[in-house]
Amino acid sequence: MVVCVVVVAMAATGARGQGTRVGFYGRSCPRAESIVRATVRTHFRSDPSIAPGLLRMHFHDCFVQGCDASILIDGPSTEKTAPPNLNLRGYEVINDAKTQLETICPGVVSCADIVALAARDSVVLTNGPTWAVPTGRRDGRVSLASNTANLPGFTESVDVQKQKFAALGLSTQDLVTLVGGHTIGTSACQFFRYRLYNFTNTTSNGADPSIKSNFLPQLRALCPANGDGTRRVGLDTGSSGVFDTSFFSNLKNGRGILESDQKLWTDNSTKPLVQRFLGAGGLLGLTFNVEFGRSMVKMSNIGVKTGSNGEIRKVCSTIN
After folding, report:
1. Exposed e or buried b per residue across 14-49, where buried means at least 16 C-beta atoms within 10 angstroms of its C-beta
2. Inter-CA distances, 166 with 47, 150, 174, 256, 265, Å
3. 23-64 confidence digits (pLDDT tens)
4. Is 60 designated active site?
5. From the candidates 43, 58, 60, 182, which is the catalytic residue?
6. By the 8 A CB rule, do 303 and 81 touch?
7. Dmax over Cα atoms in the chain, in whole Å?
8. CA distance to 28, 103, 245, 302, per residue, from 185 (Å)
9. 186 - beta bridge partners?
10. Of the four, 67, 191, 273, 295, which is 20 to 30 A from 313 by CA?
């Protein structure tokens, strides 16, 4: 596999969490990052769809209580049980890496750091960029399904999406860049089928008018009106397994799958940013890779717990 490598330097001022730094485990557990990388690679070889799952897990973790692995905790009414998180995948990868690390470095490497590293390694495996991940997070002790309202929804307007990102210190550019992570992965029909048949404020054919007319039959064939809604469709049509800029091309051409994604092209505040990632000659493709790494570092340090705040869980799914 040919991997597009763009090394992103240490985050700019303000993007790094207090107490986190690149190479945090250099002395305490030198093999930490290589073990996570190897574990992700092993699972990816068996099931490439695990890559977008791990990327999404990191996003969903950071947007609720900060990047503290609260998404991993089992139990009634935890984040795992909330509707936006019911289809998250990759827990077994995190648990596998944690088990190995506890064997060689017991009580040293946090589950939160494993999640952040695994997200980066997943992007690399799909021909995406790499970036230096600041580590040193500690794991949280609180996980409540009721807190997941912070997560952006697939029907939300760009204004609402921007508000949710801004509340966590993320800019409109971060929003467009991070949503670009949908260049890999899939969505179940149940999350966008309403756009195909019974969309409100629509034309006579019942579909969302922002869907390209020649794309609609293809989506309807994949997601029939009487289907159970569980069939999965690539979020980046024609390239859902490769990290590239075609996701943005699809938005421009009315081929976005999620309503919230397609709105990035029709909103005046986000369309110029999408266009920026569509420049000719591949130069801006490189820009997307660089910007993605920067925004991931920024996101990965939302509300991090360090020092005496939080703990290092022995088992990622259970508070010590």
Report:
1. ebbbebbebebbeeebeebbebbbebbeebbeeeee
2. 34, 11, 9, 24, 19
3. 999 999 999 999 999 999 999 999 999 999 999 999 999 999
4. yes
5. 60
6. no
7. 65
8. 35, 32, 14, 24
9. 234
10. 295
